Each structure stands twice: as structure tokens, then as C-alpha cells.
Amino acid sequence: MTFLCLDVGSTWTKGVAVSAAGAVLGVAQHRTTPPEVLDGVAAVTGALPAASSVLACSSAGGGLRLAVVGQERLVSAEAGYRVALSAGAKVVHVSSGLLDPAAVRVLRAAAPDVVLLVGGTDGGDEKVLLHNASRLARVAVPVVLAGNAAARDEALASLSGRRVVPAANVLPDVGELEPGPARVAIREVFLRHVIGGKGLSRGPRFRRLVRTVTPDAVLSGVSRLAGVLAERDEQAGAVLVVDVGGATTDVYSAVSTVESTEHAVALPPDRRTVEGDLGMRVSAPGVVAEAQAARLSFPESLVAQARRRHEHVDLVPTTPGESEVDLELARLAVVLAVRRHLQLVDGNLGPRGAGVLILSGGVFRHAPDLTTVEADLRKHLGPVLREAEFRVDRDGLLAPAGLLTQSGHAEIADAVLKSLHETGVHR
User: Fold this and answer.
1) N or C, where is the chain less crowded by C-beta within 10 Å?
2) Residue 290 maps to which CATH number?
3) Using an 8 Å Cβ cutoff, are 345 and 271 in contact?
4) Does residue 397 contact residue 24 with C-beta atoms inside 8 Å?
């Protein structure tokens, strides 16, 4: 059996052919081709060995935009926010407390694809959840209901006529975060109700092809790699992955165990953050502005170069100088994004910090040598990278590994991840 793992992004459609033994048989990519993305899929498929099974994820059309409506910001809304990030969504709005007409207008203006409605521990307060359910009945957006189980039936009745997927409470008890069921429900809503409305394809085939949103697949791959490394070495540290794109920088971390914390909302072992103001093109000026505020050093000419990239988002480096500018922007984006990620998880990457740092994104895949980048990251990110090995996901294997894991082929995913870990050395 041969698997074709597809990642249909907003800019590029990427494919990786994998054998039943987990060997990478080929890698190909083609520009994504809206309004019929299947044209790009066909181009990638034609460049790779024939496959008996196709697994696909997608972030085309802006991926999954999700709003969180919770009971109070420091507990249930924060829990919902963390669940949404773990599900591969881009969180475009978070609200807490009783929704009033003004708050509903702000929610609509954020244009979410899905609303995650949470609130209350099981058997606890029901008032806010039920009030917000009645308000959301007037919002034409699919809802994932993952709040107080005792109020679920009444909340569903209030949402009658809306597209609703119920899930177990994300916060069943104080300090207990249960992201799994809501994450599955968000994926179901994305596949059933969202991806078909993105205007990406004229028929139903693409909707049937896609199994999950790309960041969700990547997080599954990252989590699987953390488990694989922990099985080999009980002292293995966390897996930290940074994916630098044109508009955002995504950071993923996974640990085999998470020590208890004093926070009201405990952290799950697999985490993702999205930095929407840090990227290589549309948000390049944000990288420079944040780097200035953080007192990171960079050439003065980078200010104008970042502005140029913001104004010409399709810019492709054609000279070594242009490539160096991109690498400098990427270096800054990684430092800033990882710092923010560590703040969210309170530096909790386990007692040994990161065991491996994997850099992803075209800027790193095409760089001939990243020795100076590694030295700079170790300098600015300090103890968390003290023992970390550096790798580059040159063939984009994390998403395929996640797709294979989610589809019940974990042993094949393990072989793919072994290949990444052993051959992805950046030098």
C-alpha cells in the first residue's frame, strides 16, 4: 500500500508519497489553484508515484476561523481558547460573560467559521451558558457546544435550527482541562460545514478528500514525535516546532508528561500558538516592530525590506541577498514567537526543556546552512534550548505524519518521523 499525503494550503499544495514501510517515496508541490483547488492537487498527484490511499488536510481559504464564547475570561474562556488552538483553529474572537446585543455584533464582525460555546463545570452554574446559547441562536454560524453537561439539553433546545455539534465539557471540573472531545467536534464541523463553503472547489470531491485542518494534522505529528522520542529515551525533552509562514508564525510544543501547575486551567501536553502579526510577507513589518520593542539586533535596512515584502506578498527571492533578508526576518520571527509561546505555557516544556527544535517553512527548507541561526536562537531563547537538537522539516513531513496517525496508521507515521529526526539535521 502507498499513501499520498496532501496539504492544500492557501499558497502551495504539497504532497508526500509514503510506502507501507514508512519510506518517503517522493515529494512534490504546486501553487494552490482556487477557485478549483483540485487542479493543483492533480498536478501534485501526477508528479508522485501512484497511491492506493489519499489523506489530505487543508488550510486554504484562510483555514478555520473560530470564536470562543465563555463564562469568565480567566477560566472557561481561557480553557476554550486553548482548546481552539489545539484544534488547529485561528482564534479570531474571545468573549466572556453574558452576551448582550453589542457583544453579538462584535462577534459577527469577527466573521468566525465556528463558535465554540463553553461555560461552567459539570453540575455548576448554568445561567451564563444558557443565556449565551439563546443569543447565539440568532447568529448564522455553526456552534460546538462544550460546556456544563447538566445544561446541555436545554442549551441544545435554545440552539434549535442552528448547526450544532455537542461535545463533552472542556472544563469538567476546576483545574481539569479536557480538550479531546471538543477538538474532535471542531474538526467535524470544519469538514461538514466549513470547508465546502470556502469556494475552493466546484464539486463535493474536495470536501470528501479533506480529513482535517492542517495545523491539527501538524499538532498530531508533533505529539506523535514526542511520544516516539520518549519511548527511546525516558529523559527526552519536549518537541518544539516553529513554522514561519507569510502571514503567521505557528509554534507547536508537545511533552510526554506535564507536571501539575497551580493554574485554574491546567495545560494540555500538546499546545499550539498562532502569532498573526509575525510573518514573512503580509505581516513582515510586525516582525521588525516587535523586534525593535524587544531590543533584538538587526540591520537597519530590514525596516524598508520588511515594508517591501508587505507591499509585494508574492515576492520570491532571486538573489542571495534577498534570501538573506528572508532568513533574517525568519530568525526574528522565531525568537519572538517562541517567547510568546513560552509565556502562554509558563515555560512549561517539562523538566528538561526542549529536546528537539524543528524549524519549518520554505525559508528554512531552502537555506543551505542554519548554523548562525541556531547560535542566535540559543543566545536569545536561553535555558529552554540548552539541550535541544536542531532539525529542519525539509520535506514537510509533520503534517503527513499527523494524517497517518489520525487515520490509524501510527506505525507508518513513526517511520516517517524517524526519517525526519535522523535526516533533518540542518547542516
Assistant:
1) C
2) 3.30.420
3) yes
4) yes
